[in-house]
UniProtKB/TrEMBL annotation:
<keyword id="KW-0805">Transcription regulation</keyword>
<dbReference type="InterPro" id="IPR036390">
    <property type="entry name" value="WH_DNA-bd_sf"/>
</dbReference>
<dbReference type="InterPro" id="IPR058163">
    <property type="entry name" value="LysR-type_TF_proteobact-type"/>
</dbReference>
<dbReference type="InterPro" id="IPR000847">
    <property type="entry name" value="LysR_HTH_N"/>
</dbReference>
<dbReference type="InterPro" id="IPR036388">
    <property type="entry name" value="WH-like_DNA-bd_sf"/>
</dbReference>
<dbReference type="Pfam" id="PF00126">
    <property type="entry name" value="HTH_1"/>
</dbReference>
<comment type="similarity">
    <text>Belongs to the LysR transcriptional regulatory family.</text>
</comment>
<keyword id="KW-0804">Transcription</keyword>
<feature type="domain" description="HTH lysR-type">
    <location>
        <begin position="16"/>
        <end position="73"/>
    </location>
</feature>
<keyword id="KW-0238">DNA-binding</keyword>
<dbReference type="Pfam" id="PF03466">
    <property type="entry name" value="LysR_substrate"/>
</dbReference>
<protein>
    <submittedName>
        <fullName>LysR family transcriptional regulator</fullName>
    </submittedName>
</protein>
<dbReference type="InterPro" id="IPR005119">
    <property type="entry name" value="LysR_subst-bd"/>
</dbReference>
């Protein structure tokens, strides 16, 4: 018969109850005891009691309570950083234990435009190279919640802050340049400027950054006139349809440039950002992550080589 281990014999005698830490992590992540209670399927009072128990055991406040709202203290922020990383690692470990390693799919979160215009057309090659490795693709941009969305890795540009505990691997530099319908290049090269500029709201500074890379700095507060599209892929589609000139990523337009649907009259330059692969757990020791990372680096390198970059 098993008997409870006393605190003195525990290998972690100073740890508070793990359930209290789990409740704290949920409350800190949501910034709300009410939303944490909803996620954990308990009452608001139960969350409040667990937080108070944790604060009493640690001998310090973890939240400031102001006007029915809660805010992390300095100590609370430090503890949350560790708890979030540990909870993510526990979730990933349990998922791996529940699924045989040879059958476990790699769940990838990828920005929509790079997924549609570059990644998906190359997935048949990934499946040919690694026929036993399943890849599940989710499209999303910006910050990612690995635990909530059950994501293993996320392909992103490094244009936003992420959790300091995440593991990061550089994949490729971002390369940008003007692209337009092939029939529009002669007029542009003759006049030295495009007849119509296309912008995307998801990368509103793409044109100014490209001009700056060529030595043309716009005066402060002076936007470039042109037509705006809500998403990057719509802007690139409009350029291919002859509606104007957009600044596009070399990876996103490679197939259209190679197929003659788009032209890149001035080539592509590094805009200062990078594509990175993010993970809540280390890449070392996980064959799925390492295989996909190596394949991504190789394929993006092939894109640059085919475009002469």
């Amino acid at each position: 018969m098993l008997t409870p281990m006393c605190q003195e014999n525990s290998p972690f005698p100073r740890l508070p109850p793990l359930n209290a830490l789990r409740v704290f992590e949920a409350a800190a992540r949501h910034g709300s005891f009410v939303r944490a209670a909803g996620e954990l399927h308990v009452t608001h009072g139960a969350v409040s009691r667990q937080i108070r128990l944790l604060e009493d055991q640690l001998g310090m406040p973890l939240f400031e309570r102001r006007n029915r709202a809660v805010f992390l203290t300095r100590q609370g922020t430090e503890l949350f950083t560790v708890c979030a990383d540990v909870m993510a690692q526990l979730t990933q470990a349990i998922d791996r234990l529940r699924t045989p390693p040879t059958q476990a799919p790699l769940v990838l979160s990828c920005e929509p435009t790079i997924a549609m215009r570059w990644l998906i057309p190359r997935l048949p090659d990934f499946r040919t190279r690694f026929p036993t490795q399943q890849l599940h693709l989710l499209t999303a941009g910006g910050p990612v919640d690995f635990a909530r969305d059950r994501v293993d890795v996320a392909l992103r540009r490094n244009d936003f802050p992420w959790h300091p505990g995440w593991h990061t691997e550089r994949v490729a530099p971002e390369l940008m340049g003007p692209v337009c319908h092939p029939g529009a290049t002669a007029d542009w090269q003759a006049s030295g400027r495009p007849t119509k500029i296309l912008h995307t709201r998801t990368r509103p500074t793409a044109w100014s950054h490209w001009l700056a890379s060529c030595g043309h700095i716009l005066p402060a507060g002076q936007p470039l006139a042109g037509e705006y599209f809500e998403h990057f892929y719509l802007c690139l589609q409009a350029a291919a349809a002859g509606l104007g000139t957009a600044v596009g990523s070399a990876y996103m337009v490679e197939d259209d440039v190679q197929g003659g649907r788009l032209a890149a009259p001035f080539g592509f330059t590094h805009d200062g950002s990078e594509y990175v692969l993010l993970s809540p757990t280390p890449f070392t020791g996980d064959t799925r992550r390492l295989l996909f990372l190596d394949w991504l680096r190789y394929e993006m390198g092939q894109t640059r080589e085919r475009l002469g970059l």
